[in-house]
Write a structure and sequence with these properties.
The chain is an alpha/beta fold. It is built from 14 helices and 18 strands. The strands form two sheets. Strands 7, 8, 9, 10, 11, 12, 13, 14, 15, 16, 17 and 18 form a twelve-stranded mixed beta sheet that branches. The longest helix is centred in the last third of the chain and has 20 residues. 44% of the residues are buried. The model has no long low-confidence stretch (mean pLDDT 95). The structure holds L-homoserine.
Length: 431
């Protein structure tokens, strides 16, 4: 029987789920993988007050050095999130010749390259399946299952909280605030839920997927990010009537030998498989060459979904460790692609635009005149109601337009006296 001693740092929702999972599946794991995992020490700032029976027989500490310096510990699991002291924990553990498992997307998005190098230097590995899509094997699929393929496009719903909010708003007409509170109650949201709704959490995850799929480390600050804060019931309903669905998509794709990397609310056709990914579920749709289209789908947040990713990392890591080849086949720190990042201004998409305009003759021609001046061609126009006294929604769908041109046109249109409120523009993707 092989044995691996584990030190766990972070005993929150996911950390306690990992211990529960290991406890419940102990015999199965022993029999199936001939390996026993023993959690030696748990570190958490509030561990002293914890009364959980799951901690019986496990040493407790509030100081992470007690874990990363413990010579008996083989694997450190970092589940505290954030940049610091997570960075010091992961680097320190690797330097002390321990393998690391982390769910920390922000850390890997920002410091992944340095940490992968440190792992290689120390002949140890970092496993991070849970960092994107919780337990859905996205990392393993890209790095191993699809090894050798060339990726042309990647479209992901990779934030469970925002997908849950958009789905609840569409389904039960509840408020944004109520849906967010519900996501927090169910343990999907980050401790700082702003990262979920402002698009930064999926941006961190996208940075990780991009270096795995396209071999390029894209600094998070270079990713265009727009969250779901401004999505209203009105737009969800208008989209529905146009046979479209609004999703917060993380997109990376090759266009004219450049790479587009962006996160924003996106309108997609109602009959695309991603459109039916509801609630806390995540999915990524990949276009790989030569395999073609691949869709990976599952629960992307929540205690046991995340614990599943961490435990699978432990088992996979143990298999390599026990076979005497601790590091992965591929060097993850190696950039293989010289592809240039496309500037957001140059990106071309179709747009849904909602103007709140005064309902009187000549209004449409003023709007369409400005759009035309900026080279933006209209595909359809719908006015949703008639009210002479106040503003009404006018929905315009455009043909492909350059981002920069659209922004300039909207600035001009917003200044017209017939326009009330700043227009809402949502990009559309054909996929
Ligand atoms: N807050 C994240 C989400 C958790 O909602 O997707 C999983 O990374």
């Amino acid at each position: 029987m092989n044995r691996l001693n584990v030190g766990l740092i972070g005993f929150g929702t996911v950390g306690s789920g990992v211990i529960k999972f290991l406890h419940e599946r102990r015999n199965y794991i022993k029999n199936k993988f001939n390996t026993e995992f023993s959690v030696k020490k748990v570190c958490d700032l509030y561990i002293k007050e914890q009364k959980s029976p799951l901690l019986r027989g496990i040493a407790r500490t509030t100081n992470f050095h007690d874990v990363i310096n413990d010579p008996e510990i083989d694997v450190v699991i970092e589940l505290i999130g954030g940049m610091h002291p997570a960075y010091e924990i992961v680097l320190g553990a690797l330097k002390n010749k321990k393998h690391v498992i982390t769910a920390n997307k922000e850390l890997l998005a920002n410091e992944g390259k340095k940490l992968f190098r440190a792992a290689l230097r120390n002949n140890r590995d970092i496993y991070f399946e849970t960092s994107v899509g919780a337990g859905i094997p996205l990392i393993k699929s890209i790095t191993e299952g699809l090894a050798g393929n060339k990726f042309n496009g990647l479209y992901g719903i990779i934030n469970g909280t925002s997908n849950f909010i958009l789905s609840e708003m569409a389904k039960s007409n509840c408020s944004f605030k109520y849906a967010l509170q519900e996501a927090q109650k169910r343990g999907f949201a980050e401790s700082n839920p702003t990262l979920d709704i402002n698009g930064m959490d999926p941006a961190h995850k996208l940075a990780i997927l991009v270096f795995l799929a396209f071999g390029k480390f894209v600094p998070v600050k270079n990713i265009f990010v727009e969250g779901i804060e401004n999505i209203s019931h009105a737009d969800i309903e208008h989209a529905q009537s146009l046979q479209l669905v609004i999703k917060l998509l993380a997109i990376a794709k090759r266009v004219h030998n450049e790479l587009e990397v962006r996160v924003h609310p996106t309108l997609i056709p109602k009959d695309h498989p991603l459109a039916s990914v509801g609630g806390v579920f995540n999915a990524i749709f990949l276009n790989a060459d030569p395999l073609g289209d691949v869709l990976l789908y599952g629960q992307g947040a929540g205690q046991m979904a995340a614990a599943s990713g961490v435990v699978s990392d432990l088992i996979n890591l143990a298999a390599r460790h026990n076979a005497g080849s601790p590091v992965r086949v591929a060097d993850l720190s190696k950039e293989i692609s010289a592809i240039k990042l496309r500037k957001m201004d140059e990106i071309e998409t179709k747009f849904y635009i909602r103007f709140m305009a005064i309902d009187k003759p000549g209004v449409l021609s003023k709007i369409s005149g400005i759009l035309g001046k900026y080279g933006i061609s209209i595909a359809s126009v719908t006015q949703k109601m008639r009210k002479r006294s106040s503003a009404v929604p006018v929905i315009i769908l455009t043909h492909h337009a350059r981002e920069k041109m659209l922004r300039l046109a909207l600035e001009k249109i917003t200044k017209l006296s017939i326009i009330k409120d700043y227009p809402v523009a949502i990009r559309m993707e054909k996929l």
